[in-house]
Amino acid sequence: MASHTFTLPDLGEGLVEATVLEWLVAVGDGVERNAPLVEVETTKASTELPSPAGGTVLELHAAEGETVAVGAPLFTLEIAAESGIVGTVPAEAPPTRRVRLRPPAAR
Amino acid sequence: MIAASIPVIAARSAPGAQSGDAAGPPVLLVHGFGSDHASTWASSGWTAALDAAGRRWIAVDLPGHGTAARPTDPAAYALEELVAGLAAVAREEGPVDLVGYSLGGELALRLAGAQPGLARRVVAGGIGSHPPPELGAVAGIPLDAALLACAEGVQQSPRDPAALTAFSGRTLLFAGTEDPIADGLDVLADAMEDAEVVWLGRRHHRSTLSASTLKRRAIAFLAEG
User: Fold this and answer.
1) Could you say which of A43, A44, A48 has the minimum Cβ distance to residue B210?
2) Is ipTM beyond 0.90?
3) Cβ–Cβ of B44/A36 closer than 8 Å?
4) Domain A2-79 adopts which CATH fold?
């Protein structure tokens, strides 16, 4: 279990902020990846943002009607497991062999 | 009919993605002035909601918008030309359920009224009993030559109010309570044979379409036999 805070993503078109119109989930709700999570309004249009991950909603960082800057915290999810990675990933370890590069000796 | 007035089909639901019990004809989605199919119907969550309900849908880009041709002659954007162009697309797919917002809502209502049998049901929003005073201000974006021609062509079109309310099939009209463009929506509904109105509290012209209560209501309305 890990909690992860997601920020308002870059909505393109040079938009720097958005206003929360309506939360489609509440704290404690389970959400699936890609399910509609929140509806936000920019100067251009209103947009539904899908959940970037599956999990449980721990915290909503903005009230409805509040304006959030791109990159500012929007919501926190508790994510059940590190899914999506199949197989093992080699652990990072310092290299154990050193290779010395030497220019070829001049004749 | 002016060929450049025909919209392009810019997106449609994935073939075979629909569940078998999804009743009803395909839903033809028509965006408004200064927008396009994606920013009107995809980012607002409508196409995802239709997919989830198992409905087939087709989304057009109107002339001068999105991926469509961009004529700069205002005559190509006369309301009757836009309606005729939309009719050409609808007939290929038809009969259809028509869903339109803002200018797209007006086109949907006019098309359904002009061609009985082509539309089964209509969902139209962001419109009122009077044409919007200034289309450019509605869009809130810089206008290129095609959009300027579109605004001119639409605004100079003769507007027969009876043609807007002629559709006799079941109709759902909607608008935000804070949307001045939708002034007189109840008047439109009263003039129609079988229209109901949904008002969305605290919503204005650009924030109405994504409301989840609206999508639920509209999809339930389109699912009724």
Assistant:
1) A48
2) no
3) no
4) OB fold (Dihydrolipoamide Acetyltransferase, E2P) (2.40.50)
